[in-house]
Design goal:
Blueprint lengths: L4 E5 L7 H9 L3 H8 L4 H22 L6 E3 L5 E3 L6 E6 L4 E6 L4 E6 L5 H7 L2 H9 L10 H20 L17 E8 L4 E8 L3
Antiparallel strand pairs: 1-5, 2-3, 4-5, 6-8, 7-8
Length: about 200
């Protein structure tokens, strides 16, 4: 495979406690132990659904049924026995997503409806704030176009930070100024209530 593939499960509302337990029961013992330590039920569901998505992708695209995670020094997980395969996971209460391929990738997914002026001013630079504030702030279905623009910028920052293996707290306001060689693919799902961005280095 020579390109990154994207897997999404945006039907988390249909997952009940029994469905989550069934997913976890099919995980390898090391991942079962990790997920069962998560006390919050929604967080446990998101984590289980994200890992299940990765497991399905690895089986479908690479024929890999068993694997373990190992971490780089910066904390970004990779496959212990398959360093040539790159993946990244993200989840929110609306959906989980997995990007997988043969080169480094970062992904972030966020719910719509979380825009706050104070948060935007803390995390966005002047140009980004100008674009955000120029968007319509009329709220429809729980979010506005201003929220869409803000969330799009936010997912790009997160996806880029995850691509390079650093936390978004590092120079969050100007982090996108450092990514001229990065290609972003953003998906806005207004009806489903989330925004997703994939970040990869441009190919020459």
């Amino acid at each position: 495979m020579h390109s990154t593939r994207l897997y999404i499960n945006d039907r988390l509302d249909a997952f009940g406690a029994e469905d989550v337990e069934a997913l976890i029961a099919g995980f390898p013992a090391w991942r079962q132990a990790y997920v069962r330590k998560i006390k919050n039920a929604n967080a446990r569901k998101e984590s289980a659904a994200a890992f299940a998505l990765l497991h399905r992708a690895l089986e479908k695209d690479f024929g890999i049924a068993e694997f373990r995670f190992a971490n780089h020094t910066l904390g970004k997980p990779h496959l212990e026995s398959h360093p040539e395969i790159h993946f990244n996971l993200s989840h929110c209460r609306k959906a989980v997503a997995c990007a997988i391929g043969n080169r480094p990738v970062g992904i972030d997914i966020e719910v719509l409806g979380r825009y706050k002026r104070s948060l935007a001013e803390y995390t966005m630079n002047e140009d980004e704030m100008r674009e955000i504030l120029s968007a319509d702030d009329t709220c429809r279905n729980g979010f506005s176009e201003r929220d869409v623009v803000f969330t799009t910028f936010w997912t790009r920052k997160e996806a880029f930070a995850k691509l390079i293996g650093e936390g978004i707290s590092t120079n969050v306001r100007d982090i996108l100024c450092e990514c001229m060689d990065i290609a972003f693919t953003t998906r806005v799902e207004k009806e489903k209530g989330y925004v997703l961005t994939v970040a990869e280095r441009k190919t020459t």
